[in-house]
Here is the input.
Amino acid sequence: MPSDPIAPTAPAEGDDPFIPAAGTRLSGLALGIDVGGTGVKAALVDLATALLVSPRVRERTPQPSTPEAVAQTIKSVVAKVLEGVDVPADLPVGCGLPGVVKAGRLRTAANIDAGWVDWPAEERIGEAIGYRSWIINDADAAGLAEVAYGAGQGKSGTVILLTIGTGIGSAVFLDGNLVPNTEFGHLEMHGRGAETLVSGAARERRKLGWKRWAREFNAYIARVELYFCPDLLIYGGGVSKEWAKWGRWSETTAPVVMARFLNTSGIIGAAYAAAAAHTADSALSQAQADALTA
Ligand code: BGC
Here is the structure.
């Protein structure tokens, strides 16, 4: 694994992942996949309600987590989700990945094999599962789910979601619009990337009790607040489920709420982003066809 801090490779020109605008409402089905450092999860999502309409299938992330190996796990997880289910051939599929996403590829890889950097992920994942797929940063996906359907719905101002798990992922919204690919888990603390000290995995690795960890996490959040002055903080990821164990020591200026979709926000947000991208692509194709016949 590359050391922290990480430097993104140069992106292809102007090619961010497709980001739905604030307030985008969608309906129909989409498939969401969430690739994490420990598990690959997927489910079918009803976009009108954000409810999962299939079982949530999970398999362990292969080690080493090379792109080819993970693509095979994605294929297997998706096959289980879609077993016996009738879905359209153009079912939108979104996949959240733990790194900076530009032009269909990861530009960084802190908690996944370094072979992901520059690998044509969007294309190869689509080929592996047989559906057009869109990739997005995992924390951005989780943030989109919370802002579209959950704890961040209708919130104006600066909203920051942090996923605190194997690493620390971030998603920043201004008036409901995502600023993609922020990497607040890599803010510097004591000369290192913060997630190597205060992520959920770091807490376990360092054998910190909740009180001690919460104090260190407070110092990290103080830095996030100093730099970005959020109006609302949303905590997701494994550590947010343990709020009852550490919430009493949490100190922030902005109000804190837990993510509404604890295990599933990454899946829901990836499905939502893919469906929005699919809708935009279809509208574009239709406009091009109309222009030709005009
Ligand atoms: C990655 C982020 C990711 C986060 C959570 C970090 O190490 O750099 O892109 O969102 O882990 O998975």
